[in-house]
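Feature request disguised as a bug report, sorry. It would help if multi-protein outputs had a clear separator. Right now it looks like this:
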Amino acid sequence: KIHETPVSNRDFRAYVKATKYKTDAEKYSWSFVFNASLPPDILKESDQHVEGAPYWVAVEGAYWRQPEGRGSNLKERWDDYPVVHASWNDAQAYCEWAGMRLPTEAEWENAARGQDPGAFYPWSDGQSSMGKDGKWQMNIWQGNFPTKNTEEDGYAGIAPFRAYPPNSYGLFGTVGNVWEWTADTSRGNMGGPSAEEAQYILKGGSFIDSIDGSFNHKANVVTRMANTADSGSYNTGFRCATGRGGGGKTPLPDQETIQKVLETGGIEAVQALLGDGASVMTAKELEARHKAAHEGEL
């Protein structure tokens, strides 16, 4: 089963409080933050950025509890916002502590699709990037990137993970908002820092991605990228799964659907489409799982 929401700031705080865990961002003493999310004083003093992507700024002191660096906090963002600046190492450690695990890419994608195995989006008919009556169903960028976000979806940056309705399996926020780590490694270099270092798959895109792929990633359920285990940023989070993994096979899609997936996400997206299925874990089930883990029942 896959949890219905990403791990929240409050969830992660409970883990840190219980274990004194230090995230990779804390160990490095900095993390990347999207420049439009930073106050002027922090932006002025932060002169390091990603080569070719100056809107990603290296901010001293940015980590899960100070998402925008020094002086920032999680006021009004504890319960309904995903923890960010999470590396794969951080995600893996949290899931193990909670008696769970990261989902595989195939599990994540099939759960995100909902009951329609050919869906590219978790809503409506699964084929339209917009919801019923043309309403936005995901938090991505609208406008001229990276200078102007028109906020047609209601948000300029990270949104609450229940900002939009769930899919037919009850999952919230799988497309857009923040990337989510999976258990799987990439079969090749997907643009990460090193082809020699293992890279792990992230799914779903984030708030800086686009509806059509004209900049950054095209946000849908096959959207994917990879990064090293110690990498995290302002738009990386995760959700947990439980059970051994795998399960029943999803009914095979038709050739037209496979071709569309190939054009949208490449051969690895097709392989994910043909992978194993997954089900959803509710918040009540997650709470019971946590309780059992810390009463020695797991």
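(second protein starts here, but nothing in the output says so)
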Amino acid sequence: SELMCDERFVDINDVSKVCEGNEKQPSSVDKEDQQDEDAEQKVVTSSDEQSSQNEDLEPKPAQSVYNNLYETMKLLKDAGNQALQEGDLDLAARRYDKAIRYGAVALMSFPARNLDFAGGRKELLKENGGYHVEWGPLIRVLIVTRLNLSLLLLKPHFERRDLAAEQAQLALHDLAPFCAKKGKIMKGAKVDKVHRDDEPEETYLDAMTLQAKAYFRLGSAQYDLGDYCEAISSFENSVRSTKEAKAKPDNLVLRRLSEAKREKRLKGKRHRKKFKFAFASNENNKNG
């Protein structure tokens, strides 16, 4: 069955159970963020998960609620990774998908009512141009889960390049405020207004590393869809982001970039040949 990646399908009853905290998830924040990707498609090494929430990241009255949401998201992501390792791709996709839905609740990125713990977060999101502007474990695990799902959807088992591209684009959207300028978090519809100008460099480097991976996912989907011009742009952005993160571009990204450029040239030659043949046929018909 088709994945329901649209955040509007969040089950509010499931959310309320998490918010009540009656069954607190047993997982803790791991120091290593597990990435279950094929070795062939691993672009950048995952950076360490932060071990604790900064008190300023979420409203204090709702802190325990967001902690529970985060723990649930991470538990589902890790369970998805495990299912992927065991070869159960459908189960992995469902777990990633559900983690993303909880993320939508946590960040208020969908139409919702009767979620008292959210306070004025919906209005704050609107003021910030639709962006979440605090870097922390919650936004990070959402982005990583999107990238994991994007990779999964590219596999032959699914071949849903459109949905893979969508998840990569959503990850890029979430990363935009943290990748615009080093040492700053930006906001606004065009990400051109300064939210804060004292952000640690580690945030920028971590965000750029994830951005490089997101562009690679997007480029891979575009390449498979035959959109070679767009794929070239995405792969080039992946290389650029990797360099900004003070890392060396992966050989796989460079190879895919080269392949996309070659396919673009071949596609252009085929189009010119087809046009030339059509023009010659038209001339012959006129003369005949």
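Even a blank line would do. Unrelated, but nice: The longest strand covers residues 193-196.
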